[in-house]
Description:
Strand order of the largest sheet: 4-3-2-1-5
Distance between the termini: 128 Å
Shape: elongated
CATH topology of the largest domain: Helix Hairpins
Structural class: alpha+beta
Number of strands: 10
Helix content: 40-55%
Strand content: 15-25%
CATH class of the largest domain: Mainly Alpha
Largest sheet: 5 strands, antiparallel
Radius of gyration: 35 Å
Oligomer: single chain
Amino acid sequence: MNQQVEVLDQARRTAVDLAIQFGPRALVALLILAIGFYVGRWVGGVVERMLARFKLEPPVNQLLVRLVRVGVLGLFVIMALQNLGVELLPLIAGLGVAGAGVALAMQGVMGNVVAGLSIIFTRPFRVGEYVSMVGEEGRVEEIGLFTTVLGHPDRSRVVIPNRKIVGDILHNYGEIRQVDAVVGVAYDTDLNGAFAAIQELLRANPRVLPEPEPVVRVVELADSSITIAVKPWVSVPDFGAASGEINKALVEMFRARAIAIPFPQREVRLLGEGA
């Protein structure tokens, strides 16, 4: 019983000695970290306001602000560790070894980060532009360090890892798209009159942009008809609706003006002994 009391007394004295020896240092270290957190936020805010003048892409602004905040907080962490008497050189060596192991285990994640930085700084596309890549297409909603998010025309969201994008073929439509409609007319149709009617139809549609000028031309002399391409430009959000409206208006206008839209047909002759 006496031995247990002596052990508890010894533990109490040791705890008191450690508290006296390291307590003030620990409190100062915590105070340094708290100051570093608020200083990092303040410096990050200053940097964010400065970067607003350069009109950089939102992901670039976020990345630079975060790096500044982490850098400032890192300096205060070093100060706190020095206050506690921690030897930094062995700690840095240990962190280097651990970092190498983590990097090997997270090659895919790091590949996304490197690809994300490449996308952010080379800017092959920007937020708000309509793109087609890696078999998907949509309007760019977000460019992050790890993924790029597209808004699909069916109102779903497509999340693409950045490493899949870099090195692949990218089609950037920008903020406007060209409607690709075709219509066939009979060979005896007055083409100049048909073209004038199509141009009038396009000017009446509020979704069609006056510039660039719509493309209306003959693209094929088919077996049963003359194929006319109708390719006006519209803004990306109007693309789906404009395609349907233009096709419907073409049919209604041709019917109203008695312009025939011939259907494919074949003449079949049967030859027999009686013939």
